[in-house]
Amino acid sequence: MTPITLLIIVLILSSLFYFVGRKRAFTVAGGKGARGLHSLPTYYGALTALWCAIPALLVFCLWQIFETAIVTNLVIRDLPDQIRMLPPERLGLVINDIRNLVSGNIVSGEIDPVMQMAADRYRNVQAISMAALTVIALALAVLVALFVRQKINPGMRARNHVETVVKIILILCSTIAVFTTVGIVLSVLYESIRFFKIIPLTDFLFGLEWSPQMAIRADQVGSSGAFGAIPVFLGTAMISVIALTVAVPIGLMSAIYLSEYAGKKFRDAAKPLMEILAGIPTVVYGFFAALTVAPFIRNSGGMLGMDISSESALAAGLVMGIMIIPFVSSLSDDVINAVPQALRDGAYGLGATRSETIRHVVIPAALPGIVGGILLAASRAIGETMIVVMAAGLSANLTVNPLETVTTVTVQIVTLLVGDQEFDSPKTLAAFALGLVLFVITLCLNVIALHVVRKYREQYE
């Protein structure tokens, strides 16, 4: 039995105990039915189902966490002494080979008999572990569910218990989300501090040359590297500005038309079609930019006698702007629709035309939300990678010319972490420093957006 199969069985079992608990509630209520119970019968069924699933799921999670370490230790204990006494690094490679044998990921035709025996042992222990987990989880689920069923009585506050359990589950989920965010920030911050111990912070933030390629030997040219991030930040800002220049006017005007001018049938058809753009993978936009937009810009510039690079910030910015049009349009449309109709009716009553009402009443009332949506769209543009990789290039040029090749922070992070790299080298650690700066920038934009929305938001009856 696989873990997925066990989870499905637990869910089916809990669903069955839902009806068992519900039936038990009607039984203890006697002839009064639901009126003789403290809570609705569905709460008694839900309580029984929850206590059927929760213990089994807890055992399952704990088992999955510790199973690999326990099985590995049992297999290592049966290995020959010359293998068990290997250094931790070499022993880790042996264990990895054993796991590859278990999963069938072996490319060589000749297999060491000792390794094959260890793989068989690993497979047997794993099967015993899965069987034990199945028995324990299902037995615990049934026993706890039967115990809860036996405790059901007319005065039992089932609704309170169910709401408490659900509240605890929601708190745990939110806590996991918070700790995940904190863990990501701390890991990036730790590696960034290691980088800044090697490269001064001022050189990184204010340096004008970005060439993080480190030589293997100290006598090679460029072995020291250059980690001035100004060209990378400037390229990011340039492409983001171009994208917002495209997305904000088109997105905002489309939102105004859909919410104020378009008929219901046209709106119901046009809005989903526009939002399809948000579901297109970014790699598709990258292909579109590299194969269509960039050659068109280069050929158009050639007709005018201009020397335009085949990879340019303009091509990446234009396509990125097309990508975030649905983002700006959807947020602006929701904000504009939230403006009360009474404000429009009041403007019409004073003799204002529709365009005057939009310009002087609707847009000012919706402006905080629109600004917040634009700032969130800016965060989306700053974090884009694939379009820039395929359309803008990898060269960190210090330029403000949108027709030249540039790069962005996210592209450099991908470039620095691709391939076999040592995590102690400045080249690899530079990716974490760039990630930290990008995190701070996007966090500031999001905070500003929330502040603008909360400070200038109008409260309507």
**Radius of gyration over C-alpha positions, nearest whole angstrom:** 31 Å
pLDDT averaged residue by residue = 83
Number of domains: 2
The string of secondary-structure elements, in order, is HHHHHHHEEHHHHHHHHH
Cα-to-Cα separation, first versus last residue: 58 Å
In total, the number of strands is 2
- Report the CATH C-level class of the largest domain: Mainly Alpha
The low-confidence runs, each spanning 5 or more residues with pLDDT under 50, are none
Strand order of the largest sheet: 1-2
The total of helices stands at 16
CATH architecture verdict of the largest domain: Orthogonal Bundle
Structural class of the helix and strand makeup? Answer: mainly alpha
The fraction of residues in strands falls at under 5%
The CATH topology of the largest domain comes to: MetI-like fold
**Which percent bin holds the helix content?**
over 70%
In CATH, the homologous superfamily of the largest domain goes by the name MetI-like
Categorize the overall geometry: flat
Largest sheet: 2 strands, antiparallel
